[in-house]
Amino acid sequence: MPTKTIVFGLVTFLHDLFTAAWIGGLITLGLSVMPAIKKILGKGPETKKLMDTIQKRNSVLVYTSMIGLVLTGLLQANRTPVFLGLFSLGNTYSAVLAVKHILVIAMVAIALYRSLALANTTTPKQERLKKILMMSNIVFGIIILLLSGIATALSSSIPAI
Question: Global pTM?
Answer without folding.
Answer: 0.84
